[in-house]
């Protein structure tokens, strides 16, 4: 079992939980378990079957984009983090 840390803006879709225990041997399977428990998250994480461009998933300190993406293997007890990108601001 792994733990996914949920960022504050998405906690409304996890019943206020900051962390959710998930099962799965890969990041994709763990996210699938997360979405089975909290289906309202899907629209915020996925565009169809692909992760949204602004959603970053980290295993430990590594972005899964630099590993095997959703096929990145997980070991029991690993920590995953969902980090939404923040953009905007104004130029001067």
Structure description:
The protein has helices spanning 27-37, 42-45; strands at 2-5, 19-22, 46-47, 50-51, 55-59, 62-63, 79-84. The chain has a five-stranded mixed β-sheet with strand order 2-1-7-5-6, covered by helices on one side. A two-stranded antiparallel sheet has the order 3-4. By secondary structure, it is an alpha+beta fold. It has one domain (2-84): Beta-grasp domain (Ubiquitin-like (UB roll)), CATH 3.10.20. It contains two helices and seven strands, in the order E-E-H-H-E-E-E-E-E. Helix content is 16%, strand content 27%. The mean pLDDT is 93. A hairpin with a 2-residue loop joins strand 5 (55-59) and strand 6.
Structure keywords:
single chain; 92 residues; alpha+beta; Ubiquitin-like (UB roll); two-stranded antiparallel ribbon; 2 helices; 7 strands; globular
By DSSP (H or I, 4+ residues per run), the number of helices equals 2
Strand order of the largest sheet: 2-1-7-5-6
Give start-end ranges of low-pLDDT stretches.
none
Q: Main β-sheet, in a few words?
A: 5 strands, mixed
| Mean pLDDT metric | 93
Structurally, the number of domains stands at 1
- Rg over alpha carbons: 13 Å
CATH superfamily caption:
Beta-grasp domain
Distance N terminus to C terminus? 48 Å
The helical percent reads 10-25%
Strand/helix succession: EEHHEEEEE
CATH topology value: Ubiquitin-like (UB roll)
Oligomeric state of the chains present here:
single chain
Percent strand: 25-35%
CATH class: Alpha Beta
The CATH architecture name reads Roll
Bulk shape: globular
* Record field, number of beta strands: 7
Class from secondary-structure proportions: alpha+beta
């Amino acid at each position: 079992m792994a733990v996914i840390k949920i960022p504050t803006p998405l906690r409304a879709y996890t019943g206020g939980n900051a962390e959710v225990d998930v099962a799965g041997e890969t990041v994709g399977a763990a996210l699938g378990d997360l979405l089975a428990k909290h289906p309202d998250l899907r629209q915020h994480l996925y565009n169809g079957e692909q992760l949204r461009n602004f959603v970053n998933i980290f295993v430990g300190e590594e972005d899964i984009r630099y590993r095997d993406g959703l096929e990145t293997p997980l070991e029991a007890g690993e920590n995953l983090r969902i980090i939404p990108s923040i953009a905007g601001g104004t130029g001067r």
